[in-house]
Automatic annotation (TrEMBL):
Top-level division of the source organism's lineage: Bacteria
Stated name of the protein: Helix-turn-helix domain-containing protein
Domain PucR C-terminal helix-turn-helix, residue spans: 89-146
Gene3D superfamilies in the cross-refs: PucR C-terminal helix-turn-helix domain
Length: 152
């Protein structure tokens, strides 16, 4: 039974061959739909991530050991409370994805670059991680992506 105010969100998986491929495609479609719903994109068709990044992140998230190791990186942000921790993780991910540009991160976050700079100073202090180190930066970005995947 459906109401007039219902929104249907559909997920599409990648083309696959055989019975196992059908299961894979169905799982991808479910993940695509759930991701769209979690992000607030209701009432449309969501395609599976063709790069495969989301699937890799889901595999990492599914591993309790990997998930805990990555969670440890961001654990100091949890002391800020759930909302501020989530805001900090989003800020950090956007900042890293925009290669440390306060201006570009600010545009995406709809925040003045000085506001991004203030948040990033606080985040750096709490995490105590050198974001100039490529390995540390990669680990932090991976931790942010896995955290946000779990938050959805």
């Amino acid at each position: 039974m459906a109401g007039s105010d219902w929104a249907y969100t559909l997920g599409l998986g990648t083309p696959q061959v055989g019975a196992l491929g059908l299961r894979q495609s169905a799982a991808e479609a479910r993940i695509a739909a759930e991701s769209a719903i979690a992000a607030g994109r209701l009432g449309g068709v969501e395609l599976t991530d063709v790069t495969g990044l989301r699937r890799v992140l889901l595999d990492v998230y599914a591993s309790p050991i990997s998930r805990e190791l990555l969670h440890d990186i961001l654990r100091p942000l949890d002391d800020l409370g759930p909302e501020r921790a989530l805001q900090s993780v989003r800020t950090l991910l956007v900042y890293l994805a925009r290669e440390g540009s306060l201006v570009h991160a600010g545009r995406e976050l709809m925040l003045h670059p000085n506001g991004v700079g203030y948040r990033m100073r606080r985040i750096r202090e709490l995490l105590g991680i050198d974001l100039a180190d490529p390995d540390a930066r990669f680990a932090v970005e991976l931790a942010c992506r896995v955290r946000l995947l779990g938050a959805g």
